[in-house]
Write a structure and sequence with these properties.
By secondary structure, this protein is an alpha/beta fold. It has one domain: TIM Barrel (Alpha-Beta Barrel). The protein is built from eight helices and eight strands, in the order ββααβαβαβααβαβαβ. It has an eight-stranded mixed β-sheet with strand order 1-2-3-4-5-6-7-8. Helix 4 runs parallel beside helix 6. It is globular.
Amino acid sequence: MVISGVQPFTLLDFPEKTACIIFTAGCNFRCGYCHNPEFVLPEKIQQIKTSFIDEETIYSFLQKRKGLLDGVVISGGEPTMMGDLPAFIRNIKELGFLVKLDTNGNRPLVLQHLLDEGLLDYVAMDVKTSLVNYADLVGDCVRLEYIAESIQILMQGSVPYEFRSTLIREIHTPEVLTSMAEMITGASQFFLQQFRPGVTLDPQFASFHSFSVEEMNDIAQGIFSAVVGEVVVRG
């Protein structure tokens, strides 16, 4: 595992659980609005290579957190790019922790394998935009059929999950939002997240704009609430 960082504690990232977050380096997407380019771009990953954390350090850290943390969030980057991810999760679960995976959904076979093996207790999948606009936003590595397949895997499975989208005024037009609603019709949970300009992978996105909380609530109720079980706005 290429582990680029650890957040020791969070109450926000694993619903109803106390958790830590383990970040992996490397991603198969190039989302312009990404706030963690140091975990995505190869040249930036090289710059932080000396600070990578080995697995034994992670296991030692978790041993000391038994009884204090319920779970571990594995985020990125894109964790499903790691060939040893299943073994890493097995070791974490043997220590007694629940595991949540954050993923972009572009590797459905890996996702299905982890679910079939009972290694995941919760999954959060980013739904970036409408399928027709995906490549423009995330780059040419995306396979549209893989995104659609991962959505169906989660919706048809038994493991709790959420879809989530970061909304940007210049990207998420009413037509795009309507198409996204069609993609996830029947989903149990969908979280809308406010875009926060600042450090972004593509500098032009730093000048893009967020929707207000009021506008996000209108989008949630007007477009998604009729087709998704629960729609929540995260400020």
